[in-house]
Records
---
Amino acid sequence: MKTRNIMIVGVGGQGTLLTSRILGGIMLGAGFDVKMSEVHGMAQRGGSVVTYVRYGESVAEPIVEEGQADVLIAFEQLEAKRYAHFLKKDGVLIVNTQRIDPMPVVIGQAEYPEGIVESLKKEYRVIDVDAMSEALKLGNPRVFNVIVLGVAAKHMDFDKEQWFDVIEKTVKPKFVDLNKRAFETGYNL
Amino acid sequence: MDDKNRVMMLGNEAIARGAYEAGVKVSAAYPGTPSTEISENIVKYKDELYCEWSPNEKVATEVAIGASMAGVRSLVSMKHVGVNVAADPLYTVSYTGISGGMVLVAADDPGMYSSQNEQDTRMVARAAQVPVIEPSDSQEAKDFIKFAYDLSEKYDTPVILRTTTRLSHSQGLVTLGDRLNIEDKPYERNIAKYVMMPGNAKLRHLVVEEREKRLIEDSCDFPINRVEMNDTSIGFITSGIPYTYVKEVLPNASVLKLGLVNPLPRKLIEDFASKVDTLYIFEELDPLIETQVRSWGIKAIGKEIFTIQGEYSANMLRKAVLHEDIKIKEAAAVPGRPPILCPGCPHRSAFTVLNKLKIHAAGDIGCYTLGAVPPLGVVDTTICMGSSISTLHGMEKAKGKDYIKNWVAVIGDSTFMHTGVNSLINMVYNQGTGTVMILDNSTTGMTGHQDHAATGKTLQGEEVPAVSIPKLCEAIGVRNVYEINVFDTEGLEKLIKQELARDEVSVIITKTPCVLLNRTPVTHTCQVDADACKKCGMCMKPGCPAVTKLDSGVTRIDTTMCNGCGLCKSQCKFGAIKDVPC
C-alpha cells in the first residue's frame, strides 16, 4: 500500500499531541509502520503548530510535504487556510470552525480573513465542524479535539471499535468515557 | 519479534534508551530544545543509573568526563549552542581520551525552530577532532549510540552523537534490547594522559592525530557506513534525516549512507564516487562532507542546488534533482501566528511595567525573549545564555552610567544559574551600576519545566536545599536586592524607578511561578462589565491573548483562556474589569 499522509494543525495548546498519539496508536495496532513528527519548544507557546503522521508498509521520511497530505485536520480556521496547500488533489480537509485571533490581529496589525471555510470549499474537499459547541454540550470544552478526530476517522481505514480500543490505551483512565463520547459525537456528525 | 519489544519512540527517547542499554551509569545535561527529552526519558531508568540537570553544559560535560575517568560509561546531552558552552572541556577531553566510554549528544536545529543560530556541530567536532555519529531514525538513534560507546572505548576518544530537531522530535518504531552489564574500569593514575599541562598535551596531540588517521581508515569498514548500490547513474552521499528524503524520492538511486560523518571514510567515498555517474552530496547545514570530498578532486553536486540554510525536504529533491514540476498550490497569504506569552504569564506583567516606563531591556534566552515583539516591545538584545547582564555592563562602560538609566537587564532564574551569575559578579567587581531584573518563575520554562539548583528539586526528583538567589546576589556584593510579586504592578513600577536612579548595582527578583507550573484549578476569571467599559483599549496593551476587542469596541475576555492573573484589571482606570468566581 502507498504511504498515507495525515497532518494535524492548530494553535499551540490545543492538544495536537494527544490527537497524534491516538492516531499513531491505531496505525500501530493495525500493523503498519508509522512515523510521526512534532513541534516542541518555542513554537508551542500559542504559535502555529503542525504534527505529521505517516503510515504504510515502510515509511521513510517523517514529515508530510506540500501537496502530499491525504487528510488535513485543522483545529482552527486560520490554521486550515495556512496549511491547505499541503493537501493532495483529492485530499480531505476537516476544519474545526473555531477562531483564535493571532497576536498581529489582536493588536490591529493584521485582519483575520473573513469567510475562510467558504473560500476553502471552493478549492478543496472540506468538512467543517463546530466542535467547540459540541464539546460544550458534553460539558468539557477540552475534548473538542477528539470530536474533530471522530469526524476525521470516517475518512480513514479503521472501524469505531479499533478507535475506542486506542482511546482506552492512550487517555488517562478517568477521561476515557468522556473521550469515547466525544469521539462518538464526531463520528456521528 | 515480540510486539512488547517494539514501541513508538521519539528520537530523543530512543537516544535515552540506547544509552541505558549501553550500560551508561552517569548522565548530565542542561535543558535546551531540541535535546531536553533525552534527560526527561533517561530519568525513567534512575534505579539503574544516575542522572542530573547541571547548571550549564560546561559543568555537565565535566561531570561526564569525571564519570568516564572513574571508569564508567557516561552521557552528556545538550542543544547545539550548548556545545559552545561545553567547548572548553570538549576540546581537551579529545586530547586526554576517556576511560569509560563517553558520548556527548548534540542536537542541531536546522530551520531554527527554537534557537538563536543555525550552527553545525560537525564543524565544532572537526575542529576538536572528535568523531561524530549521525543516525537517521529512532531505531538507529538507539543502535548508533550503543555503537558510539564501543567506538569511544576502542579508540580512546569522546564521541559526539549528532541529532537534529527533526530526528529528536519524530517518532518511529524501536525494538528494545536489554541493558548491557558493563564492568567498571579500574582506576589507574596516569598524569601523562589526564593532566593536560603543555609537556603532556604535546604528546597527547600526537595521539589525537594518530587516532584520526586510524579512524579514517578503519571507518571504511564500520557497519554504520553503508553502501546501497542500485542504479549507478545517480549516487548520493548523505546521512541523518536527509537520507530519508533520498529514500522517499529516489528509492532506486545508489546511496552511501554515512553513519560516521567525522572523520570521513575517504577510501569508501572515493570508491563509491568512482562507481556512479553523477554524485550528489545531500547534507543539511554546512557543506562539511562536500568541501572535503571536493578537496580530494572528486566531482560532486551539493550546495549549488541545495540550500545552506533551513531543513531539507523530499520536495527539494523532486525539484532540484528530478526537475519535477510539482503542482503545489501557493500557500495562502494569512496573518502569522508567532509564539506568545501564555495568558497569566508573569513575564507579561514585568514587560507591561517596563513598556509603560519606556525602558529598554538587554534580554536573555527564555520565554521572556518574546518581550521583544509587539505589543510589549521591551527587549532590545538577545545573544546567548547569560548575556543580558554583561551586555548591559558593556553599554555602561562604553557610554557611562547615565546612558543606562533607562535600561535594565532581564534574565530568568534558570538562565541566571546557567551563566548569568558570572556576569553579575563581573558587574559588581568592575563597579557597574546596572539594574538587573531576575524574572524568577521557579523553573526552566521554555523547555517545558525543568528543575535547577534554585528550585530545590533534582532531575531524579529528590528534594534538596535550593540556592537562594537573593542571598547569592548579596554574597556577590549587590547591596540592593529586592523580591517582589510581579503582579504588584504599582510596587514594581516604583521599585524600578527607584533603582534606576541609584548609582549602584541593583537586583530586582520578581518571584512569581510560571502559570503552567503546578497548575491549580482557576478560582476566578476576569470579566469586562460592558456598561462600564469606556473602550479605551488600555486592558489590551499587555497583549494577553484572552483579551480581544468586539466590533462594538468593548473588550471581551475569553474565560476558557483567562486564569484571573488580574493584569488587565490593573490597567483599567474605570474599574470595568471584575473578578468573577468560577
Note: Chain B has four domains: 3-221, 226-321, 346-517, 524-581.
---
Amino acid sequence: MNTPAVALTGHLRREARTERVFRVATLASALLVLLLLAGVICTLIEGSWPALKVFKWSFVTGERWNPVTDVYGALTPLYGTIVTSVIALVIAVPLSFGIAVFLTEICPLWLRGPVSTAIELLASVPSIVYGIWGLFVLAPILQHSVQPWLIDHVGSLPVVGALFQGPPFGIGLLTAGIVLAIMVLPFVTSVMREVFRMTPVALKEAAYGLGATQWNVVWDVVLPWSRTGVIGGIMLGLGRALGETMAVTFVIGNAHRISASLLAPSTTISAAIANEFAEAVGDLYTSALFALGLLLFVLTFAVIAAARFMLLRLERGAVKRK
Amino acid sequence: MSTLRRRRIMNFVAFSASMFATAIGLALLGAILWTLLSKGVGAVNLAVFTQMTPGPGSAGGLLNAIFGSVIMTLLGILIGAPIGLLAGTYLAEYGRGTRLSTVVRFINDVQLSAPSIIVGLFVYMLLVIRMGHFSAIAGAVALAVIALPVMVRTTEDMLNLVPRSMRDGSAALGAQPWRTITHIVYPAARNGLLTGAMLAVARISGETAPLLFTALNNQFWSSDLTRPMANLPVVIFQFAMSPYKDWQQLAWVGALLITLFVLVLSVIARSISTLFGQHSNPGE
C-alpha cells in the first residue's frame, strides 16, 4: 500500500538520512584539515628521529654538513634561511608600504583595480619562474654591475664592509634575498592595503580637520591604528620567505659554508632539501634532510601562526568597533 | 622654514617615494613577463607540443611533461576540491561559531602559507616509501594537499556572502539543511566557488617543490599513474640547471607556457568574482 502519507514519510526519512550523511561528511572533511597537520608533524618527527638521536642538539648548532663522513649540522642552512629572509624583508617592506600607501591614498579610483591586480599577479607567477629569471637575468646584472660597485664602494667601509667583500659570484645570499623580496612583496602589500583600508574614516577626517597633510594622516593616524596588522603582514611575508624553495634553489649557489659576505654562495634549509633529497643515499643522510624539514616546519609554523593571530586580533577589534 | 611648509615638502617627498615604489613593483612584473616572452616565444614551435623531452644536447619537445602536468593537476584538484568544499561548508554552515571551526580555520590559514616542500616530504613518507617508488599518484596527492586550504578558505568566504535570510526561507519551507545548502546556498555562491577552484588550479599548476620527490620525472611518455611521470615544473628545473643550450631553451618555453596559463587563469578568476560582486583573497 502506498498512500500519499506513506510516500511522504518515506521521503522525509530519506531526507533526514541524507542530512546525517552530509553533516558527517562536512565534519569529517573539516577534521581532515587538522589530521593533515598532525600527519605532517608525525611524519617529520618519524623521518628525522634517526638523525636527531645521533646528533641531538648538535644538529642545530653544528656547522659541518658532510655526507661522506655522515656528519650533519644544520647551522649553515639555518643561517642562510634567516639571512636571505631578512634581506627579503629589508627590501620588500618599504616597497610594500609605498605601494599600499599609493593604492589607498594617492591612486585615482579608476587606476586602483588594474594596479592592485598587477601587483597581485606577482604572487601568481610560479616560484620556478622566479628561479630561472633570477639565475639567467638578475644574477648576471648583479654580477657585472651591482656587486662590483658594492665591493668597491661599500666593501671598504668599517663594519658593514665585511658584508660586501669577496668576488662577485652573481649567485649567493644577496641574490636569493632580492628574488625572495620580489616574491613576498605582493603578500605584504596586500595585507597592508587591507589593514590601511580598515582605519575608521572618522579618525582620518578628524586629522584632516586639524590641518594634517595626507602624509601626516598616513604616518600619524593610519599606521599607528593598523600597527598590529602591518606587523602581522610583515611576519606573513617572513613565513613565506623562510619556506620558499625553488626560486632560492636556483640562485643561492648551494654551498654548505657560512661566510660573512652577503655576496658569497650559501644554502638554505629548503634549497638543501630540494637539491639533495633525491640523491641522498644512506638512511642517516635522508633522516638528516627530514630533520631539516622539521626545523623549517617549526620555524615557519611559529612565524605564520603568530602573524595569523595578530591579524585575527585586529579583525576582531574592527568588527567590535562596528 | 615654517612648519606648514616643512610638512608640505615632507608630504611631497613621501608620496613621490610611494609612487616610485609602485613603479618598481609594476616594472618587476613587466621585466619578468618581458624576459619570458623574449626568450620563450621564439622557440615555441610544433615540436614542443608533439615530441617528447629530449636526451642531453638534442632537440625535442615537452609533450610528455605537458601531459603529466595536466593529469596531475586535474587529479590534484579532483581530490582536493571536493574535500575543501565540504570542509568549507562545515566552517560556514554546521560549525558556524563553534570552537572546532575556529581551530580548523586557524590551522587552515596557517597551512595556506606553509612551505610546499614540507608537503613533498610528507607525501614521500606517506606514499612513496609505502609503494616503494615514485609515482604520479603521489604527485597528485601532494598537489591536492596544497589545493585543499585554498578551497576551504574561499568556500567559507563565499558561503558567508550568501544572505542568511535565504537559508531561513528554505528552512521555513521544510527543507533539511543539506538540501538548503546544496540547492540554495551553493547555486547562490556558484561564481565564487568557481573562482576558488580556479585559483586553486592556478596555485598548484606551477608547484615544483612537492613534485620533486613524489612524481619525480620521466624522460618518456607515461600514462601509468603508479609510475614516475614527467611534469613541466620539474622538467623546467632540470633543464634550466643543465649546461645544454637545447635544454635551457625548452626550459624557457616551459616557463612561458606555465606562466601564461597561471596568469590568464588568475585574471579570469578575478574578473568572475569582481563581475559578480564576490570577493575573496586567499593569498593573504
Note: Chain B is about 75% helix and 0% strand.
---
Amino acid sequence: ASVMAELLQPDSRMCNYFFLYDGSKVRGEADPTRDGICYFYPEETPLDKQELLCGQLAGVGRCVSELSSSPTRTLRLRRNKFAIRMKDDFFWALGCSVDVPTVSVSEFLDQLIDLFCFYNGPVRRSYQLNSQETLAARWARYLSHLQSGSSELSHIFSCLRTIDSTNVDPLLLLKAALILQACQRCPLVLAGCILFRGRVVSTQMSPGLTMKVMVHESETYTKAQRPNGTSASSSFSGTVSSTTVFLTTPELQDLQSAPVDKGFRCCPTTPQRDGPSKKTRLSRTLSDTPSTESQVSNPSSSQPPQKASLSPRLSDLDVFSPAPTHSAANSLNPSPQSLRPSLSNGEHSVEDEMEESRSRKSTGGRSQIHSEGDGSVFEEDSHLNGGEGEGAFGGVFDFQAVESGNEQPHDDKVVEEDSSVSCGSVSGHSAGKSDPPPLLPPPHRLSDASEENALIPMTLYMHRVKGLVLALLVEPHFMSDATSMEEVYHSSLASLNGLEAHLRTISPGAPGGPGPYTFAHFDCVQSTLTTNLSGRSGGAWDQPFVRATSLLHSHFCNTETLQEAIIRSASTAVYGTRSVAQETYFQQNGGSLRNSGIPNHQDSAFSLPSKARHRLLKHGVNLL
Amino acid sequence: MTTKTSLLKVILLGDGGVGKSSIMNRYVTNKFDAHLFHTIGVEFLNKDLEVDGHQVTLQIWDTAGQERFRSLRTPFYRGSDCCLLTFSVDDNQSFLNLGNWKKEFIYYADVKEPEKFPFVVLGNKVDVTERQVSTEEAQQWCKENGDYPYYETSAKDAINVAVAFEEAVRRVLAVDERTDHLIPTDTVKLHRKPRSTATCCS
C-alpha cells in the first residue's frame, strides 16, 4: 500500500553511466577492451572499471540479442538500469537508477544518440574525421545539456523545455509564430523555432528536432567553445551564426511535406513596387493556403485530430484563432470555456486571414507553448563530473531482468528506427508505436547501406537578440546567398527586437508553495509538460507526487489498455489518466485522506477523478 | 558641440493600417512591403545618423495601432524622446483620432510637461490619389494643438520619410539644449523657433 514511502531519495542527475563501445576495435582475444571504449561517463571512472562494465554489458547485450533474435533494449544491473542500443559494431549503454521508468531511460539514450548524429553526422564517419577527445567533449556536452536545468518530472517525460506561458500574453505567441512564418517566405528556409532564455516560445519543428536545435542555442548562449563548422557572420554584427547539422530522412521529409505552399512564397528578390505579387501576404500560411488538401496530404503529421481539443492551452489552433484579444483578456485563465465561445462571435476578428487559418494544419508547423515549473536552464550542472555511483561494480553481475525490444522490427537498424520514433510525436509510447514513418520509401527502410546516407547535411541558422533566439533550419547554400540572408534578417529583426522587449518585461509569477492540489499534464504530441509544481523547489511535499507520477507513467507505457489509475499511500493519493495524446496526474493536497483500509464509497481517493476534472479546467487541461 | 553618440527613442503612434511599420522599414532598411501583417505589440529598429553635427542613434519604436493591442504597447511609451503621431491621408478617421493618440501617449509615457514635449505629425500615404484629409486641415490641427511640425509622407514612394525623422531628432536636440542651458545659466529661451515649421510636401 505504501509504495511511495519506499521510494528513494531522488538524484538531481539522471544518468549514472554512459558509454559508447566500438566492438570493431576489439576483434581478437588479445585486443584489450579499452581500445573499444570511445567514451565513458563519468570520465574519472578507473579504466579497469570502465573495461569491466563495457565488456560485460556488451557481451551480455550481444548474447541476449542473439538468443532472442531481437535487439537488446534494457539491461538491469543491481541498482542501475541500462538502456542499450546496438548499431553496426557500436554499442551504447546509459545507466540510471532503477527508479527511473524504463521508457524514460530509453528515450534519454535515444535523444543522446540523436543529438550526436544531428551535430556530427554518422557516428562511424565522425570517429574517422575527429579525434576521440574532440568527440568525448561533445558527448559530455550533450549529456550535460540533456540533464541541465531540468526538473525530475521533465526527465520522466523527456519533454521540451518551454516558457511558462501563464504570464505570457497569447498574442506574443502569435507574434512569434508570425515571425517564423515570415522567415519561411524565403524558399531556402525549411522551418524554425524561437527560443527565449533556453525555452521554446514557438516552434514549427517536431519536438525531437526542436530539442536538438536547443543544444546549439544553449552553447552559443553560454559562449562555450564552438563545435567545428560554426561560423559567425560578420556582416550581421555577430548576432548571426550557423552550423552544419544532419537530418534523418524522415525528419527532412516531415519538414518538406509540411504544408508550405511553395507557389506562394515570395521571391527573395522582393521588388520595390509590388507587381504580380500583389496577392501575396506576409503570413503566407495564414492567408495563402486556400485549400485544405495540403493538410490532408500530410500523412506524416504527428498531430492526431483530437489534439486541438485535448490541448486547449495554446496549441496552434489557439494561436491562430481569429480572436486573439479575448485570450489576452483571459491569458491567466485560458480555460476552454473562456476561449471557445468567442471564437465564433467574430467581434474581435483580427483579419480574414486569421479566419481562414482556423484550418490549423495550414499553419505550416506547430506552435506550442506550455508552462513548466522548473527554473533556469542556464545553470551549470555541478553534478556533472561528480563522484561515481553507488559502487555497484563489485564484479558480480546480477542480471535481474532482461527486457528485449520485441516490439521493434528486429533487424540491425535499431538506431534509425528509434530516431524516427522519438522525432515523431509520440516518443515511444505504446500508443504511438504503431505509427510507421509513412513517408520513408521502402528502399530506405530495407537497405542497410542507405542508412549512413540517410543523414542529410543542412544548416542551422541562428539570430540572437539578447536572450531571444531565432533558429532556422535552412538549405546549406542559404549562408552563401546574401540576398536571402538579408531578406530573412531584415524581415525579422524589428519583430525579434520587439518580442525580446516584451518577453523580458514579463515578471515571473510568484513561486507558490504547495497549493490545494498538484498536477502535471504531459502533451505527448507536442512533448510539453504543464505543471504547477515548481521544479526547483525539490520540496519534500513534491516528492510523493513526482515518484507516483513516475510509477504511473511507467505503467501507462507498459500497459497499452490502462487508462486510469490511482496510486496511494497512507497519507495521500495520486490520480493518473491518459489518452493517446496526453497524460495527466493529479494530487489533492491537505485534508485527511479517509482511508478505511478497504475501499469503500466514502474513500476520498475515489473523488480524485472528478476533482481533477474540475480543478484542471482552469489550467486548460480538459479531462471531460 | 558634442561628439558622443546619444540614443534617442522615438515612437510611432497612430491608427492601425496608417503605415507606421512601413515608415520605419522605409527609413531604416529602405524597403517597402505592401503586405506587412499587423504589428503585434511593439517592434523597434536602430539607425545611426548625424543631424547638425550631432551623432545620434535613433531607436524607432513601431507600435500596434489596433485597439485590442493597447495593453501590449502602452508599457513601452515611457522614456520616449519624441512621438510621431501618424495618420493616413486617405483615412479621415485616422486623422480624427490623432488627439486620442496624443492623450494616450501623454498618459502612459507619464509626460510631465505635455505642452513642451516634442510631437511630430505625419500624414502618410500621399501616393494614394483619393485623399480624405487635406493638407490644410492637417496643418490647422498641428497649429492648434501645439504648433507641431507636419510632414506628408509616403513610405511606399519614399517621400519625406527621412526628412521627418531628422526633424524629430532636431526637436529632441532642441529640447535637450533648452534643458541643458536651463540648469547652468538660468536663462530660458521661451520662443526658440524650430528649424522648419512649414510643411514639406513636395
Note: Chain B touches chain A at residues 21, 24-25, 28-29, 31-45, 62, 68-69, 71-72, 75-76 (CB under 8 Å).
---
Amino acid sequence: MKLSVYRFDPDKDERPYMKDYEVTPEASDRMLLDVLVRAKVQDDSLSFRRSCREGVCGSDAMNINGKNGLACITRVADLPQHVTLRPLPGLPVIRDLIVDMTQFFKQYHSIRPYVINNDPPPERERLQSPQEREELDGLYECILCACCSTSCPSFWWNPDKFVGPAGLLQAYRFIADSRDQVSSERLDNLEDPYRLFRCHTIMNCVDACPKNLNPTRAINKIKELLVKRAV
Amino acid sequence: MRAALELARRELKVAVLSKVFPTRSHTVAAQGGIAAPLANSTEDHWHWHMYDTVKGSDYLGDQDAIEYMCRRAIEVVVELEHMGMPFDRLENGKIYQRPFGGHTQNYGSPKMAMRACAAADRTGHAMLHTLYQQNVRANTQFFVEWMALDLVRDPQDGAVIGVTALEMESGELYLLQAKAVLLATGGAGRIYLFTTNAFINTGDGLGMTARAGLPLQDMEFWQFHPSGVAGAGVLITEGVRGEGGYLVNKNGERFMERYAPSAKDLASRDVVSRAMITEIKEGRGCGPEGDYLLLKLDHLGSEVIQHRLPGIREIAIKFANADPIRDPIPVAPTVHYQMGGIPTNYMGQVVAPEGSSKEAIVPGLFAAGECSCVSVHGANRLGTNSLLDLLVFGKSSGEQMLKDIHAQPKPHRNLPKDAGEATRARLARLDAANSGERVADVLNDLRRAMQAHCGVFRFPDHLADGVRKMNEIAGRAQRIFIHDKSKVFNTARVEALELENLVETAVATAVSAEARKESRGAHSRSDFPERDDKNWMKHTLWIKEGNRLDYKPVHLRPLSVETMEPKVRTY
C-alpha cells in the first residue's frame, strides 16, 4: 500500500512537500491508523496526533483521499492501494498532519458550552423525561475532531466569525437541554450575519462527520427557533 | 479535571497540563456507567456497595477509603448531573441505572443491584466533556499539549514544589512552580500488547513518581477485561452483559453458569476472564485458532441495542465486522485497568514510607484516578467504580489542596539550584544520541514480554523470566535514540519519553508480581492457587532505587462501620 503524506516541518522545510511511504499492512492492521503507525516506524519524523484508536477521542482527524475522516476508524479494506493524506484543510499547519486548532476551539468556547441553570441545585438529580433526554441524542456525542468545520467552505472563509458546524451543533445541544435556562440568550449570541447565518446548507459537515451526526439539522433547528421568536 | 474544578471555582489559579486536548483523555472511552446507590430502580445502600467493593477487591482494598468513596457516591454523581451530564433517564425522570458485574443487593445476594448510572454506552465521553465544559466555565487555565516530565522536590523536606514540562508545539522545556501538584495521568495499559488502553496511556505520572524516589503500590494487579474485541483490543462494555448479553463457547454453551452459578456473566471481571482463558485452553474457544469466545446479544432486540448500546454496535461493526443485532461479537480478555499506582490516602495525598511510618504524607503531591492507588480497588476493580473513583477522589484531593494552599505562606518556595537538571539531562542525552536502540523495537519487546509473562494466569518460571527480561529491556531503554531532532511537535521525542515511563511501570509490575506468592484478585499463580491472608494481606511497594520491594498493611478498619472480614470469594 502506498501512502503519500503531506510533510512540513517549519524547523527545517521552506515549503511543504508530499512524501511517499510503501507499507505492507499485516493481517492485524485493520485501520488506516495502523498503517500510519507502521510508516512512522520507518520514519520517526512523520508527525500526527492519535490516542484512543477507536473513534471516540477525536485526535486523528485528517484529510484522507480528499475527504475528512478519522484514521483510526477508516478501514484499510475500504481504501484504494494509493492513499493521499493531508492535514485538515483550512487550519494553520503546525507540522505534517498536525494542525493548529485554536480557532476551532475558540468558536466552541464562544457558544458557552455548559448547562446554565440558576436555580439552587436540588438535593437529588434534576428530573428530565426520557423524551426530553432524547432531544440530546445526535448532539452530545460530538468528539470535537473538527472533521465537519474544516470541510465547510464558510468556515474556511471566516473561521474567526462563523461558529462553524461543530460549534453550532453544540450550541443547539445546550439550547435543547431541558435543564438549561438561558436559551434566549443563547439565541441572541448567535443572531448575527456571521456566527450562524454563514451556514449556506452546503452539508459537507454531514458528509464528513465520522460519528454520523447531522450539524445541518441542528443549525436549521436554531434558525427555526430564531424565526419563531421573531414572529 | 474534577480536582481542578474544585480549585478554579474558589478563584485559585489552576493550570492543567495535558499532553492531549483535555476531551481526548482516555476517560472518554469509558462506556458502561458510574456507580452510585441512587436506588432509582432497585433498592440499594452505600453499605451494600461497600461490601461489593471490598469483596471485589479480594480484601486488598483499604476499607476506610472504600467507605469514603461509597458514602460520597450519590453526592458526586448528583453534582455531575447538575453540571449537565446527559444521563439516560427513567420514565419518572430520574437517572437510568443498569446492573454491572459484582454489584449486588443485600451483601452479595443473588439479586443484582442496578447501580450503574449510564449515558447510553458513552458514559465516560459524556462525563469527560461535562467536566471540561465546567472547567471552561470556571476559567481553569489549560496548557494543551504540554507533557509533564518530572517532579521538582524541595531537598529540605521532600515537598513537591513544581514540575518540569515539555511544550510539545515549540519543543521548549519549562519549569512550573506550584504550591500543590496533582497527578491524574491515568493508567499504563500500553505495557501490554493487547490492551483496551489508548496510545497515550503510558504511565507518565508513575514514571515521574518513581524517578522522584517515591514508591509505586500494588503494581502486580492488572485487570483483564473479559470483553475486548478479539485481535483489536477495543473495549466492549460489561454493560452489554448488564443489559442481558452473555458469553458462549464454540459449543454454544453459556459456560459462565459453571464458573459462577449465581452471578454468571456478571461475576467479577477477574473471575470471568479466568473462566474464558480456561475455556480457550481446554479447546472450547471459537474461530479458526480457537482463541476467542462469543458475546451474544442479538436476543436483546434491535431497540435495546440501538438505544442503550449504540457505541458498541458501532465498534463491533467497525472492528469485528459483526452487527450485534444479528451476530455475536468475538471477544477475549484484554488488559484494561491498573489497580495499583501512586500510593495515596483518601484525601488524595501521596504517602510513602519515612522513618517509622509506612504512610508519611509527601507535602505538595497528590494523585487521583487510575494513576493513584488509594486503594479502593485492591486486587480487582468492579466495573463503574473507576469513574466514581475519579469524581470522589478528584473532589477530595481538590478540597485538601485548597486547605494546604491556604495554610502556606504567600510566596512560592525557592527552587533548588539544580531544579529541572535531571530532565534537562534526559532530553540532552536523547538529542545527542545518533545510534542505539529504536524506540519502537524496545517498546514492542516490552509489550510482548509483559503479555507473555504477566498474563491472566501466572507461572513461577514465566514470572522469574519476566523480571529478567524487564531488567534487560530497562537497560536497552537507556540506549534509545531517535532520528527526528526537530524542535516542533516532535512526536518521536514524546514517544521516547513515554517509553521511559512504560519501562518503570513494567519493571514495577514484573518485580511485584514475581514476589507475591499467592493468588488474589487479578493476580493468579499456578504454584500458589489460594489466597493467603496470613502472609499476603498486605500492599506491595516497589521502589525504583535498588529495584526493591517493601510492604505495608491493608487498612481493615473502615471509618464508621464494622470491618468486613475476609471470606472465601465466590459469585
Note: The mean pLDDT of chain A is 97.
